[in-house]
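TL;DR need structure tokens for one chain.
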Amino acid sequence: MKLPPCYIGLEQARQVLAEMGVELNERQMKRAADRDAHGHRKLPFFVDPIEGTLKIEKGTLVEIYNRLHVQAMHDFNKNA
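>> reply
TL;DR here they are.
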């Protein structure tokens, strides 16, 4: 059974990452959410149409970090 989406803001996202051992300061978190010169974000934040603030789906954030960890381990083991 799939859980319903849980949308969180920048500070909550920073807390979720901290619980996973990824300590980011406010500026680093904002930089990950801001658009670059090409209009892309490092993480899939979007502007909440009601609040006008940046949001991300909590499960997506965790999944991105888990996927990157698995890929790093795969690359490490392949080169070992």
